[in-house]
């Protein structure tokens, strides 16, 4: 019953804790004029940045130069002793992604689509490790999730994504082994900006969007931004819509250069299906039969959040920052799932059914004090902080029976009798963390040393509503995490580095097979790499070798419980992931921009269940590669105003389950874009443009299997946009 991968679990939450960040800020000695010698090291051009903790990416076209993700202050990517990537604002405009999976699909090591077509959740992995619960951050604050309560991301509300790969608990507290994805919300602009769009796409996708920003008036230091979207859309799967209403107001007060307050808000309502999976026959082969029941397949999610980022420079040495956010989410869903042939009529497939209602509330606050000073010839940037996370999650779940699926009329819906809730689960979690980190710069050497200690307390109450029997589980977790990294900034611009980092992720909930709480997941990484920002060229090349060891990992497995087969989280002993990544980003003056990457990942099970030890982790390709190129014809060309984009994503072979008895075939998926700026015809059309984007251009819909259950790749999707800016 793998379609219930999310919707049926009650206590499958992984690492439901908060975050905090400690890292280095580029020393003042390295912030002088670009290209000048400073203490024997060449400061590279175009990477001078101003302080700030909001996570905004400083970028030139497709090339991200700095962000706060690696350090909690704006720091050039080449100075962060860990693998880091970005999806810039220009990339978002050119590719116009419609989901978070589309947004990150061209970043190194990122495995999207392991569960085929499924608009319900943004589930993906990096370096062989799932990041759905432990690796999604919003504006440098953790975006927690529990059960099926996972925040949905609207890409149109983002101005970029910054990605830090590998264990990062010394920065963020409880996180996973693969890394983290920092989603950066659109912020107010000091210059006026206005945009409206009308869109139409595949499967009757009607969408309108607007984005308005600028100063409130000409006198006061107040700035605003209001971003919104309305979508009415079907999908390739019957009874699985993709409807959304989204509104995101933002406000900034900047009375002087030393003080800034930014308020970020969001509300969205999304309607989709309770399940989107296809039926797997008794041999495990995925069919074209929708496993759900079109008459009993609804999922409505409401989410809201509001937070602020405050920064004040106290003097030439100290800067204080406080970032906070409160988030709420509710989801109400009905689902049905065909799981086996009917014993009497071979044309029928028996279906189970269920309903659940979940609510999640999370509050996160992070306080930081940064100090920049010198001790002789050594520059220091010290960052100290304290953060707190409060999370409460409530889940009601009920199980029933749906009328069988009739394979002679597979799209017919059948009414389901009302289903009562059987169980109630409530989790309360507190997390506190304190951290200290120093970036030490001497001549061309940069040494980063940081450590953090976390305390996590989780109380879980499970109630059987049929008997009123209550089970209470209390978990206490605490751990120290650290990172040490050394980089050398050569005179010719190449920056080699080496680092060691650890991660700690307490796992709330219990193993439903054993009834025991999950142990905390721990990981450590050794990484060496090199970064090169080419002189006189807007091109960044990075490469890294990594080795990650993780123990007490959580993964999904179909288990026969007393109530029937169910896809639940179980705990594996140990995984080792080793690999190599290389990435190149460039935006040139001739109109060409591109991103390219190759990743080799060897994810092996060192300790696990019988029949899996020594095998490779399910659905993790050993080889992945991607290339996206966009070219805009320049003035003087007979087709000036035209833009053409083409992308290819290669996924190598992977195993369909941890038993490694069969393989998923390799595949190449193509994406494309075509745009035209009407101002090239006449200046009176300035601001008007047309763009068409396509994903999976050749409509490859091959089976993809993960954890022993099979899905289908999402088919071709196209969307056209008429855009006007002023």
TrEMBL record:
The encoding gene: fhuA
Alphabetical keyword list: Cell outer membrane, Ion transport, Iron, Iron transport, Membrane, Receptor, Signal, TonB box, Transmembrane, Transmembrane beta strand, Transport
Residue intervals of the TonB-dependent receptor plug domain: 79-179
Gene Ontology terms describing biological process: siderophore transport
TonB-dependent receptor-like beta-barrel domain location: 255-697
Pfam families assigned: Plug (PF07715), TonB_dep_Rec_b-barrel (PF00593)
tRNA processing is among the record's keywords: no
Family per similarity comment: Belongs to the TonB-dependent receptor family.
UniProt name for this protein: Ferrichrome-iron transporter, receptor protein
Keyword Transmembrane found: yes
Lineage: superkingdom: Bacteria
UniProt xrefs under NCBIfam families: PRK14049.1, TonB-siderophor
Cross-referenced InterPro entries: Beta-barrel_TonB, Beta-barrel_TonB_sf, Plug_dom, Plug_dom_sf, TonB-dep_rcpt-like, TonB_sidphr_rcpt
Cell compartments where the protein resides: Cell outer membrane
PANTHER family per UniProt: FERRICHROME IRON RECEPTOR-RELATED (PTHR32552), FERRICHROME OUTER MEMBRANE TRANSPORTER_PHAGE RECEPTOR (PTHR32552:SF68)
GO terms assigned for molecular function: siderophore uptake transmembrane transporter activity; signaling receptor activity
GO cellular component: cell outer membrane
Membrane topology recorded in Swiss-Prot or TrEMBL: Multi-pass membrane protein
Signal sequence, renumbered to the chain: 1-30
